[in-house]
Protein 1
Amino acid sequence: MKKYITLVTLSLLFISCGSDIKETSTNKTPAIAVTISSVNLDNNSPFFTASGKIEAANAVTLSTRTSGYVDQIYVKVGDKITKGELLLSINNTDLQAKRAQVNASITEARAAYNISEKDYNRYKNLFSENSASQKEVDDMAANFEIAKARLEAANQMKNEINAQFKYVNIKAPFSGIVTHKFIDTGDLANPGMPLITVEDPENFEINLSIPENEISQIKNGMKVNVLVKSISETLIGEVTEVSTSANNSGGQYFVKITLDKTKVPILSGMYTSVMIPTMKVTKTNIVLVPEEVIVRRGQLSGIYTISQNQTALLRWLRLGKTYGDKVEVLSGLNSEEQFIVSAEGKLYNGVRVTIQ
């Protein structure tokens, strides 16, 4: 009996010691320094947000109407170019041969025209002196008109050949920047194939799709704030086009925003949030948190808060609309709570934290 009691006592002592060791180990885990913030409340939000992408107002993808191998490309992506600058040349040996043939035809047609003109003028003088008949004059006049028509046809053929040279010597239609190159030297270019894209880096616009419950609030000339997400800059834009039909756009209305000129380094393709003023109040007592602190795991969205034990606690949220750089919290966080904005280490559930 005494032996059994001794074993039980030792077991309890071992468990107690293990518990103390574990607790001591947990307590020695260094705390992560964090910065916290309070929930923002917006009692009156007279705007709604639409997502869009910055596009160059003046952009063109150049192609050709002829087939041929690319002889040389004179520019690369990122180069600044001026209007009329040669960008790309396609082998044009066949066009040069056709132009030589046309030039020979023009020379022949002009010679025939000159002879016909002289014959016609001579017979007109003879007819006035009663030395030629009316029929002879008419024949010379007909020959002269035929020669003139042949010369005109040859000249028009030359114009057509010269026009085709524009599609083998691709030039810049306006000053701008080369943004894409779809072909390399030696590749075969075919009619309609994209070759080079040129954009004007001075003027930008944003095309939006607006739902029917908001489109009535948007008017031409309206000023809007445009948040460029990647660089966290807010720009000013103006509504320049508003569609009045959604028959061909799946119930969404097209709206174009033209951006004011700015020194902010924006680029075509950057994503934006456009904050459009509206006369109606969207909601009262909106709970807003910064978009950047939202933790996304698959289809779930959450935010780190601080528990009563001074540990990080991941709280799952139900989110609503986006307002600029903030997002609405529909449930999971109330106005009396604080959340972690940044941390000097990796956050996870249960890690000790200390507030800076």
Note: The first strand starts at residue 32 and ends at 38.
Protein 2
Amino acid sequence: MPAPTLILAPIRGVTDCHFRTLFNKYFPGFDSALAPFINPQRSSQYQPKQLKDLLPEANRSLPVTPQLLHTDADDFLFLAHRLHDLGYKEINWNLGCPAPMVTRKKRGSGLLPYPDEILLFLDRVMPKLPLQLSIKTRLGLESPDELLALLPSLDSYPLSEIIIHGRLGKQLYKGISDKKSFARCLKASKHSIVYNGDITTLDEFNSLKLQFPEINKWMIGRGVLSNPFLAGEIAGNEVKDKLRLLQYFHNDLYSCYRELLSGQAHLLGRMKQLWGYLSMSFPPQKKTWKKIKKCNTEQHYQDVIENLFREAS
């Protein structure tokens, strides 16, 4: 059986091109990444500054697929052609974002209760796309029956794959992934399906492989931010001195953002977003996270992190 294909999930505010490059340097194991979605912007020509996260020169380390949140076909096609000009061969349409400010606009998982609008959008877009299209979705916004009803209709479109996160939009990231509903969706589609949701340990991954032997592509997000070595463990990599690698990764990422971001509030905010997950690797997690959240100056932050790694060694 071929080795599993692992995809880094898009996590807005964390997995930008700088993170992806450094993460792949220190924690190899992923085959590719899905970039956080590009915000829809009317009347935008999407100049290099707006697409800086996806410029080829910023993504030489790990293959990346751009993700679009648009629901306007013309705007979607304009950006698709812009990305094609940058050399991309595939894009992803986001039908999974659960953020209320997104779903209220009938975007992300907020569009799932309206299958006719999804199909109309694809009818307008697919014939004019210069590249391949995949979809990342959830089981539904309010009910898993939403995606289950939509999937057979998607069979007639030449999608490269469908990535299914096993939660509803209304759940956000609460509760557990609904594996029974995922199994029903798997049987309802002829497309290549990627599993996403609650892959947090090697044992969990191995259990999912047994439960879904037909799946060979897996997307991992929060699980690998909490344990950066998880993808490598799945890929069979052996790592020595994990703590040292974590510290080098952190220091490189911190230095990178210190140069790029304006002001210590912006810098500390970005690092705290990462530590919201990474603190899981430094028990007791709640105590660790509480210390980091309290940091309000760079010096305070540096002292806390230095002491954290010292205590863990």
Note: The chain has two domains: 5-235, 242-312.
